[in-house]
Design a protein that fits this description.
Largest sheet: 5 strands, mixed
Distance between the termini: 59 Å
Helix content: 25-40%
Structural class: alpha/beta
Number of helices: 9
CATH class of the largest domain: Alpha Beta
CATH topology of the largest domain: D-Maltodextrin-Binding Protein, domain 2
Oligomer: single chain
Strand content: 15-25%
GO molecular function: DNA-binding transcription factor activity; sequence-specific DNA binding
Radius of gyration: 27 Å
CATH superfamily of the largest domain: Periplasmic binding protein-like II
Number of domains: 3
Order of helices and strands: HHHEEHEHEEEEHEEEEHEHEEH
Shape: elongated
Family: Belongs to the LysR transcriptional regulatory family.
InterPro entries: LysR-type_TF_proteobact-type, LysR_HTH_N, LysR_subst-bd, WH-like_DNA-bd_sf, WH_DNA-bd_sf
Strand order of the largest sheet: 4-3-5-14-6
Protein name: LysR family transcriptional regulator
Pfam families: HTH_1, LysR_substrate
CATH architecture of the largest domain: 3-Layer(aba) Sandwich
Length: 299
């Protein structure tokens, strides 16, 4: 353990480029850090750092040793995680990023919280493109293709799209039978807050997307106002089917033009490589993969 402590001290000095800062973080004196590094250098027979009054930099030998030490520590941490997986149940803080529409998946999230009460969920709902590693997220839930090839990825469910309106609206304005009929209807649109673009209504005929200049009667950057306006008979809106599951079941909204909405998208989990061994992350991945598909409606 003394040798491992020396490696840990070396890694910290390498990261902070300062004996004083490393000592402060370790809660020891600067001289103690210096002696640890000196003993390490004596044992290796090589100088690891160039020291001056203003800076601390790695020597060529130090760079080589740093690369090896990082691998040693990664293997040690992986071994600790494997042992923890055997001896402990999933617990601890799990930091998750989900899209804004993920707020409508609270039944699945609630079920997970009840199944794993020792896991503390810290969830950020946002459509912005987060940097998973730099911002310290354990896992992100996203839709569509994997944008970052450096992350591990798992598809956990798929969903379709619907165009919905209230029974009262359809009784007053008529039920569209063909996509072109939408041109004379009140259309409520979703705008992506990150890109500023309107979400397209994924209408297809004979396998080809239809490019219709739909009226933009109302625009919102979250789905809840669109659902509420549609329920109150203001117009028609196109949304992911899971976002209006309850309204379709209750009959407050009715779907139209279903045969022209055959496109499908996927939910996927993405996480940094090496963290999958964390029991709390493994539990989240497995639970979402098992339970999310049962929540997503099949239309």
């Amino acid at each position: 353990m003394d040798r491992f402590d020396a490696l840990s001290t070396f890694l910290l000095v390498s990261e902070l480029r300062s004996f004083t800062a490393a000592a402060r973080k370790l809660g020891v004196s600067t001289s103690a850090v210096g002696k640890t590094i000196a003993r390490l250098e004596d044992g290796l027979g090589a100088r690891l750092f160039h020291r001056s009054t203003r800076s601390v930099t790695l020597t060529t030998e130090g760079e080589i040793f740093l690369h090896r030490c990082q691998k040693i520590v990664e293997e040690f941490e992986a071994a600790e995680l494997e042992i923890a997986q055997v001896t402990q149940g999933p617990k601890g803080r799990l930091r998750v990023s989900m899209p804004l529409a993920g707020m409508l998946l609270t039944p699945v999230i609630s079920a997970f919280a009840k199944a794993f009460p020792d896991i503390s969920l810290d969830i950020e709902f946002s459509d912005r493109l987060v940097d998973v590693i730099e911002e310290g997220f354990d896992v992100v839930v996203r839709t569509g293709p994997a944008a970052n090839s450096q992350l591990m990825s798992k598809i956990i469910g798929q969903y379709g799209y619907v165009i919905v309106g209230s029974p009262a609206y359809l009784a007053e304005h008529g039920t569209p039978q063909e996509p072109e009929d939408l041109l004379s209807h009140v259309c409520l649109h979703y705008r992506w807050s990150t890109a500023g673009k309107l979400e397209s209504w994924r209408l297809m005929r004979d396998g080809v997307y239809l490019d219709l200049a739909l009226p933009t009667s109302f625009i919102a950057n979250t789905t809840e106002p669109l659902i509420g306006l549609a329920e109150r008979g203001i117009g028609l809106t196109s949304l992911s089917a899971f976002t209006v599951r309850r309204q379709l079941e209750d009959g407050t909204l009715v779907s139209v033009l279903d045969r022209y909405l055959t496109d499908r998208n996927v939910f996927r989990l993405m996480w940094p490589p090496g963290r999958q061994a964390l029991p709390r992350l493994r539990a989240f991945i497995d639970f979402m993969a098992d339970h999310l598909p049962t929540y997503l409606p099949t239309l």
